[in-house]
Amino acid sequence: MTIWILVLVLLASVTALGYRQGGVRVAFSLVGILLGVWLAIPMSPWMGKVLGWIGVKHPFWAWILPPVLVFWLINGLFKAVAFQVHRKVDVFFKYHAGDLHRALFERLNARLGACLGFVNGTIYTLLVCLGIYMFGYWTTQLGSEEGDPWTMRLFNRLAHDLEETRLHRAVAALDPLPEVYYQAADFVGLLFHNPMLEGRLARYPALLEIAERPELHGFAQDTSWTQLRQSRAPLREVLAHPQMTALMQNLDLLREIWAILEPDLPDLMAYLETGRSPKYEKEPILGTWAFDFRTAFVLYRKANPRMTALQLREARKHLSGIFLNTSLVAAPSGFVALKNYPVTRAPRPGETAPATEHRTITGRWRSENGRYTIEVQLEGQQTAWPVEIANDRLQIPSANPPLAFERDSV
């Protein structure tokens, strides 16, 4: 119902305005509208640079404002020219033509203006419905039962009515946005309504390297963020959280994340829904690996066959403590990180013996003929470890002590 009211108001008002302004001015406006629609997207990069110079940095405004401003600038230019042309024509018929010609012109000009105004109103209606179609897709995905602002509820209502009137089929044919725009909306909507998927998202292979950035660690460590997401708070509260505010202000990090996600959105959606990535599962080393102490201790016993039962018991107690939270991360770029890896350090003042501290050690992994090697720097020396992978288990027998991991999937 709201869409039909909107259509009637736009058509009636623009048609009436065309009748009042006349065919000359409305004809120029029509050309301006068509040219503005045609040039809005091609000239957006230029307008985006202008907005960047004047301080518009937010990614949303930097994306939506350029085509809108280009459209209205071109439209306004043609309206200004139309006013001057109309005034000259009006002066001619008022002072240089007879009364009959003047009356005929005014009648023709008004009726032609109404007809062209109806055309302009139709174009404006399609453009408004296109805006509802594009933004309503996002607001519908992110809508909650309660707590949403009135603007969001309005867009949801308009988008729903647009689909009921079947006008969405007409505007979809005019939609200039790429498919990735709607894939991104599907991804954000799925993540917003399923907070538990955040753990799985952090394990997506393409995001493993950037997930090690300190700016993103706060989400996992902030209990208030966890509670907010588990309570299924509305979008307004989620965006107002300090962690999300800091992320939205870090434009460089947002661009990096988008550059990673954009080509992989279909694969990412499949991963969030099934836990498997069709694109990255071809490289079995990719992913997050949790330390498997039982298998690691078996490898330790094989590497030290002469140890007594008492020595093995002491070794088990010691190793199970220092490797309790150790994990391994391998990303598609070749990045690898051993997190919470125990390293012996020199004794500090007041300490009588060396102690163990946990560090994150980064390195690279490479593959040759299906065999993997991890290269890290330990105690100032470059170390290369051959890796064995089978049945979601990763083993590094040559490490000291030997390491074993099992795939950590959520």
Automatic annotation (TrEMBL):
Transmembrane segments: 26-48, 60-78, 110-135
Keywords: Membrane, Transmembrane, Transmembrane helix
Listed name of the protein: CvpA family protein
Organism of derivation: Limisphaera ngatamarikiensis
Species lineage: Bacteria, Pseudomonadati, Verrucomicrobiota, Verrucomicrobiia, Limisphaerales
